[in-house]
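[step 3/7] inverse_fold.run input=structure_tokens len=419
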């Protein structure tokens, strides 16, 4: 027994998986970095814990696009109630905050270490692909919170959300510069999930966040660089299901579209002939009467990273904000008269051209209306409501409180907004 005990305590145990790659191996090889980069897409888009599900759900509730079906879904029910019912315990906000910061952290590791690869064409693909998800993560946080973390780490400071959009644009510009130096190699494209058109997506996101930051000239330049005939999508299959369909559409037990006019007030409701309404909303004889369709309509429905219609509406708004009204109406009419057959995703209003007053206020109001219809349940509506000065009575909240998991661990966490 004595010999057994002595041999047991003297035996050193290293519980290390010999088949697992070390951090040095992962971040020093193209293969390892590719694995981390593709992981960014999974964190962003797969399942109920994904950024995609949570940003769309949070935005849809607060902008009055959907209504709760089952109050047992506590986080969604709190968002439906809005205002003070939404606090730092809300699971949707906490999950979105955590997943966004993880994406930013991992993307930074890929972007930094990719620069050490000898194959610069492969490296530019890694940098650009990772920059897309980093920009989306920062952009989502800046759309929903008044201030965002300045970086990743302990006790980080916070910056104004407009500076967050600037950070997202900086990541995009870095990626575009890498591509201009060494165009993305076909071997990189073959090693990442199909669906994302990298260069067009970078320009589209630059246009989006430049618009949100109030840099209209830059937004217009970036929007003009997007090929509107191309699609850029997050794809799903029988194993990795579309998260909106999986949680919402297939169950009809979490939330549903609030009504046939997308929850919009009378002044900006869609025309009864607007073909985008039946594209996005299914009307049924049994409850819930109005259900999610569109990009959450089937198990494997692809979800667009951006819509070509968004880019056209960015152009229209950028022109209108700069008081270039004829140009704004030209772009606006492309949305109003577009048929589903002429849109890569089948989103078409098929209406007549703009016939309202040629004033900046009236044209901007029509652009707002078209954004709310064209981009239904895209996660962008609350940002639009603020930018177009919509009253708080049309919203459930203006900005989110900060998750307790951040407040409890970071003394620099700002005070929560009152609404």
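[step 3/7] decode complete -> sequence:
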């Amino acid at each position: 027994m004595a010999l057994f005990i002595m041999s047991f305590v003297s035996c050193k145990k290293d519980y290390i998986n010999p088949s697992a790659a070390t951090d040095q191996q992962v971040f020093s090889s193209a293969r390892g970095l590719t694995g981390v980069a593709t992981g960014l897409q999974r964190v962003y888009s797969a399942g109920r814990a994904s950024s995609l599900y949570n940003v769309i759900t949070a935005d849809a509730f607060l902008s009055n696009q959907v209504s709760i079906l089952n109050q047992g879904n506590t986080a969604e029910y709190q968002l439906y109630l809005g205002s003070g019912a939404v606090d730092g315990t809300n699971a949707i906000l906490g999950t979105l905050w955590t997943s966004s910061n993880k994406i930013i952290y991992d993307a930074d590791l890929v972007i930094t270490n990719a620069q050490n690869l000898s194959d610069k064409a492969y490296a530019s693909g890694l940098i650009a692909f990772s920059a897309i998800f980093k920009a989306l993560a920062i952009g989502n946080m800046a759309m929903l919170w008044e201030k965002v973390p300045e970086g990743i780490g302990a006790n980080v400071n916070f910056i104004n959300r407009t500076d967050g959009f600037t950070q997202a644009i900086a990541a995009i510009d870095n990626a575009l510069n890498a591509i201009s130096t060494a165009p993305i190699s076909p071997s990189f494209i073959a090693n990442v999930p199909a669906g994302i058109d990298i260069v067009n997506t970078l320009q589209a996101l630059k246009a989006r966040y430049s618009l949100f930051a109030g840099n209209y000239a830059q937004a217009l330049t970036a929007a003009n660089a997007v090929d509107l005939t191309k699609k850029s999508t997050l794809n799903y299959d029988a194993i990795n299901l579309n998260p909106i369909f999986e949680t919402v559409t297939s169950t009809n037990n979490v939330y549903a579209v609030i009504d046939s006019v997308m929850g919009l007030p009378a002044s900006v409701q869609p025309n009864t002939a607007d073909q985008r309404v039946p594209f996005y909303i299914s009307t049924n004889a049994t409850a819930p009467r109005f259900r999610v369709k569109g990009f959450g309509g089937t198990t494997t429905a692809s979800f667009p990273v951006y819509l070509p219609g968004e880019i056209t509406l960015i152009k229209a708004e950028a022109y209108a904000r700069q008081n270039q009204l004829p140009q704004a109406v030209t772009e606006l009419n492309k949305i109003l008269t577009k048929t589903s057959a002429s849109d890569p995703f089948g989103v078409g209003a098929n209406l007549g051209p703009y016939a309202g007053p040629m004033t900046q206020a009236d044209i901007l109001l029509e652009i707002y209306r078209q954004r709310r219809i064209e981009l239904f349940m895209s996660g962008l509506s609350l940002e639009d409501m603020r930018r177009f000065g919509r009253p708080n009575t049309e919203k459930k909240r203006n900005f989110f409180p900060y998750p307790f998991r951040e407040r409890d661990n970071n003394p620099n966490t700002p005070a929560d907004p009152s609404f």
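[step 4/7] annotate
The chain has a mean pLDDT of 94.
The two ends are 69 Å apart (CA to CA).
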